[in-house]
Amino acid sequence: MKPCPALFCCLLLPLSLAAGDWEWQTVSPRPEIAPDFEREDGALILRAPDREGVNGWFEARLPVEGGAHYRFTATRMAKRIAHPRRSCVARIEWQGPDGRAVTSPHPVNPRYFGSPNTTARPEFPRDVETREDGSVLLSHETTAPAEAVTAVLQFHLRWAPGGAVRWTEIAFDPIETLTRRKVTLAAIHHDLSGSGRNSEQNRELLAPLVAEAADQGADLVVLPEFLTCKGVTSDYAAVAEPVPGPTTEFFGKLAKQHDCYLTGSIPERDRHLVYNTAFLVGPDGALVGKYRKVTLPREESQRGISPGHEYPVFETRFGRVGLMICYDVFFPEVARELTAAGAEIIALPIWGGNPRLAAARCAENGVYLVTSTYTNHDHDWMKTAIWNREGDRITEATEWGTVVTATVDLARPAVWYGLGDFASRVAREAPVRRAERADDTRTDHPPAAR
Fold it and tell me: What is the average per-residue pLDDT within 3-9?
């Protein structure tokens, strides 16, 4: 029986109280690894002794209405913690009457499992903003499972010898509807075959397909790799240009005309160096940023191409975009670096490659991928396609000179059987990356607690 409105208000009343008024418990898997717990002016403070293995959390149990929507927010301030994304975790669990497990409100992909239903797993709010004082805002919108009567909120400190974390601005409020973050992704499938053209003519060949993608509502359009070279020359340095330069100016005008973002790959010259560089131009016509290909096959290194060393992620009006180029997809490190930096979508101009690796990069990082390739669509090799977070191709090109598009919701969780929203778990549970290990001793975090 559906509760009456008066009962619903009673159930939600505790959520309107400040978190400092909630009934907090301190929990640790074992007393010998418990941190020190403090509460001060509504803040939750956890401090770890200077020894390995410390693991514990504050926990509050709040009444919820099954099927209702909620917004979680909290602020984290860490001190002397090498890996806050892994050591300072917020977590939401759902329980039915008497603490029983409940069924997730999000169906599992039936392609992989016979039943679309699965037990609701913990949810991990994500970092969404780093403030000037070094504190980090976490935010998460969610739907309580139909059978849920309790939300268990947890604030952890783990695996950070001598570290401390201060959790503040904690809220868990009912909302009318979930925020949707729909974006239309597009990839151009053109082989740029033939010869005798110049770089300018190659750019012109792609312009009608950009217009076609825009007519289909594209927010992001992915162009091919080395688009100023294919059918022009294999001497990449001969057509290398600065970024920004003629190509980014050309596609910047198209992006502004069609109110979208455009990305593709060209040879970039920077003094005596030549890079394989992916550019991103925005709807204002300006260069948003660029990525220099990190992993080079011998075909490029022997022609004098230099590798890049950075993994930038770009803020757009619809979300965070990372760029990879061709051979990058063969190595898990590049996609992991981008997603660790917050990428929700990766654009991949690619000459050709193994589609199984593209699927793996999506699945292991919980990220959408958009690929534009020169590989023939009839071959069992890389596709011009749009891939979901599970590594499935949502759509793929079947003809040359065409555009493929798909609209995705970046706010929709990718729920896996037995794991829940895996994409939200990656940052909290993935191994420490090499770059993080090199910085293990840093102590430059602002004070977490006095």
Answer: 35
